[in-house]
Amino acid sequence: MEIWMIACQAFWFIAVAYAANGFAPLMKGKKPLDHGKMLGRYRLLGDGKTFEGSFGGFFFGVFVGLILLYFQNDLQNIAASYGFSLPNLNIYIIILLSIGAIAGDIVGAFIKRRLGIPRGSPAPLLDQLDFITGALLLCSLVYLPSLEIIIFLYIATPIIHWLANILGYIIKVKQTPW
């Protein structure tokens, strides 16, 4: 299968997780999930993981997923005319991808705090792949995409994440370009 077909399949499948992860910081939440609690010398999660961001990210991911479901048959027909198919989404996959993306990002923050990495400081690959890993793991309860799609996502996501962070920095949503 050609790379552009795999890319279409991968982005179709993971769009919900991308939406959930990307929308969460736009909420600019004020209520930290960890309520300011410490674990040892460091915060449990830090101020960057908030109730508003978590719920906002989840609901935005589901919203994007519902839009995808609405257009799924038409886009499947277009893909078929090019000789490939898109993964079939359903409400369970959408919910699991959205929850998994948010949960993966929270686990990533927990790991960063345990390593003593301050909020906003880079943690190469962890910052880019935590939400994808969470989304894939949770979604695997009902559906696991092909190995080609998974490999493509693990290669493409750090690049896309890096570009999105630069954009977030430029539009002043993020304090750092990483």
Descriptive notes:
By secondary structure, the protein is an all-alpha fold. The protein has one domain. The chain has five helices and two strands. It has helices at residues 3-23, 51-81, 91-114, 126-139, 147-170; strands at residues 38-39, 42-43. It has a two-stranded antiparallel ribbon with strand order 1-2. α1 packs antiparallel against α2 and α4 (126-139) packs across α5. The longest helix is centred in the middle third of the chain and has 31 residues, at 51-81. The model has no long low-confidence stretch (mean pLDDT 94).
Task: Identify the notable features of this structure and list them briefly.
178 residues; mainly alpha; two-stranded antiparallel ribbon; 2 strands
Number of helices: 5
Spatial separation of the terminal alpha carbons: 33 Å
Mean pLDDT level? 94
Q: What is the global morphology? A: elongated
Query: How is the largest sheet built, in terms of strand order?
Result: 1-2
Radius of gyration: 17 Å
Order of helices and strands: HEEHHHH
Which segments are poorly predicted (pLDDT under 50) over 5 or more consecutive residues?
Answer: none
The count of DSSP E runs of length 2 or more, i.e. the number of strands, is: 2
**What's the number of structural domains?**
1
State the helical fraction.
55-70%
Q: What are the SSEs and their pairings?
A:
Elements: H1 3-23, E1 38-39, E2 42-43, H2 51-81, H3 91-114, H4 126-139, H5 147-170
Antiparallel strand pairs: 1-2
Helix pairs in contact: 1-2, 1-3, 1-5, 2-3, 3-4, 4-5
